[in-house]
Amino acid sequence: MGAGNAVGVGVIGAGNISDTYLEHLTSFPDLEVHVVGDLDLDRARAQAEKHGVRASGDADAVLSHPDVELVVNLTIPAVHAEVSSAAVSAGKHVWSEKPIGIDRASAAALLDQAAAAGVRIGVAPDTVLGPGLQSARRAIARGDIGRPLFAQTTFQWQGPELFHPNPGFLYARGGGPLLDMGPYYVSALVHVFGPVAEVAALGQRGTDIRSVQVGPLAGQSFPVEVPSTVQVLTRFEEGGQAQSLYSTDSPLLRQGIVEISGTEGTIVIPDPNTFGGRIAIVRPLASLADAGAQEWIDIEQEGVMVGRGLGALDLARAVRGGHTHLASGEIGYHVLDTLLAIEESVEQGGFVPVESTVDVVGMMPADFDPFMRTV
């Protein structure tokens, strides 16, 4: 089991996102990373050496490792469900990058398989567990904005080809700004408003072909298979509403905007693709003369700042403690179900019901310390 009773971890997928995961996973005393696996054995070896992990190899090296209890699945979206299912078959708990899968059938089958095997599934994003959103949720729970009524969220820019050396998969089925970035925004909204009841959307592709702009593949073209701009209306089961924009067709960069308006104020929440940031409340105007000097009231952010891997840590501690982990597979499925309903609305028009539901999502304790040994 490694040092003490630390939960043994294996990582499958040594791509771009693995750096930040491994940086944090190897810093948490409650976890011990034993092995990194990837289709590219040299890349797996390099990441293992960089982060002080003793072993590397392919996916089977992770799944067969006797000390690995939790597999962190950082593969591409198209194989998330397949790789997670293999981990469950090996008797491992799973933390998966978002989305849980790219279709409802394989995602639902994965949850059923895990339940039958007695293992847990956790699904990104874990940014929603960070001090930013959690502190904002506590402010909302205190009644700081009264009763939440509606939200506005915005994610728009030119696209990930500006930085990603091989961005084609982000425009393939299971990608696009909706499936790539939507999980952050939809998850944040579900944490605040509860489960989604129905959605309506419009979508378009700015162009059918894009080009890699950085790295060794620069200049190479790839197809755009999904809408690159999607505009969404959302109604929640408890009556809240939201309007959201997801676009990689915009020269104007506006990201991370989440504003929630209630009966007594509007709260501005940090970018849901980050773990923290400024939280502020704006109160109603006393008169129109005050419009030019509307006060922003800052809300203290509580909790220890961390990064990706927080959800895997919460899952691991829940396994040891026998309690519920927060970024669950069921929430991951509900978010996927919502995103696919949005896609269906783009294709067929009108409101599309979201068939799945989830319970109200719990909150992280304000004193949660990822760098404390607890197991």
TrEMBL record:
Xref: InterPro entries: Gfo/Idh/MocA-like_OxRdtase_N, Gfo/Idh/MocA_oxidrdct_glycsds, GFO_IDH_MocA-like_dom, NAD(P)-bd_dom_sf
Gfo/Idh/MocA-like oxidoreductase N-terminal domain sequence ranges: 8-123
Keyword Oxidoreductase (UniProt): yes
Keywords, comma-separated and alphabetical: NAD, Oxidoreductase
Keyword Oxidoreductase: yes
Top-level taxon of origin: Bacteria
GO molecular function per UniProt: nucleotide binding; oxidoreductase activity
Official protein name in the record: Gfo/Idh/MocA family oxidoreductase
